Amino acid sequence: MTETTRANLARAAVGFAWFTIVYNLVEGIVAVAAGVVASAVSLIGFGIDSGIEVAAAIVVLVRLRAELRGDEPDERKEKLALRFIAVTFFVLAAYLLFEGVRDLITGERPDTSLVGIVLTGVSIVIMPLLAFMKRRVGRKMGSRLVLADAAETALCAWLSVSTFLGLALYAILGWTWLDAVAGFVIAAFAIMEGREAWQGEPHDGAGPQNASRREAARSGY
User: Fold this and answer.
1) Helices then strands (H, E): number in the chain?
2) Angle of helix 114-141 versus helix 144-173 axis, rounded to 10
3) Could you please report the per-residue DSSP string of 98-153?
4) Which run of H or of E encompasses 35?
């Protein structure tokens, strides 16, 4: 790969990181506010995950901007960044598990949130496309950090689906346990992605035929 090609890929990744920061900042604020109003655990968790994705995107943005300035890759810093992303996944999972169990025990009944349904519906369209573009750039660069960020965005896409279904089905059927179950689904995804980020091998959706790419990602940024 030529330096020009890699620089172009890095600039594309920077653009995706900036979009992620702006979009998820707005999404997170709206989701948490709507979740608090409706006492919807899954919606609050969805909003918190948006904040986590902003933090992860900032980490990636700082590293990519350093690369564009010509700084040499730092394996130690990259590993620390990956572990920071992993910890944010684990914190989110712990919150969702605690709140979900508490709501099941107390029988707390959330309100229907039309704002949450619309918000997660929009994210179902945007997040998978953004994750795909990040993953493609990350693979071409052989960057574990960009792939970890893509995994975070992919998680957000799955969260959008599970939260949307939980909110929509609750609005239709009125089953109080749906919100907690949606939160547990989110927690399961968060734990899975957190483990992979901690190990330095974020899931990139690649099959066995792409083992060489994964090996390149392990060998360096």
Assistant:
1) 7, 0
2) 160
3) HHHHHHHHHT--PPP-HHHHHHHHHHHHHHHHHHHHHHHHHHHHT-HHHHHHHHHH
4) helix 3-38
Domain ranges of the chain: 3-219
Stated pTM of the model: 0.73
Return the exposure string of 65-100: e unless at least 16 CB atoms fall within 10 Å of the residue's CB, then b.
eebeeeeeeeeebbeebbeebbebbbebbebbbebb
Structure tokens at 150: 């893509």
Residue whose structure tokens are 């986590």? 52
Counting every residue written for the chain, the total comes to: 221
Summarised one tens digit per residue, pLDDT across range 3-57 is 778 888 888 999 999 999 999 999 999 999 998 888 887 788 788 888 878 887 8
Q: What is the pLDDT of residues 174-217, one digit of tens each?
A: 777 776 787 788 788 788 878 877 876 555 444 333 433 343 34
Residue type, 70: G
> What would be the CATH architecture of the domain defined by 3-219?
Up-down Bundle (1.20)
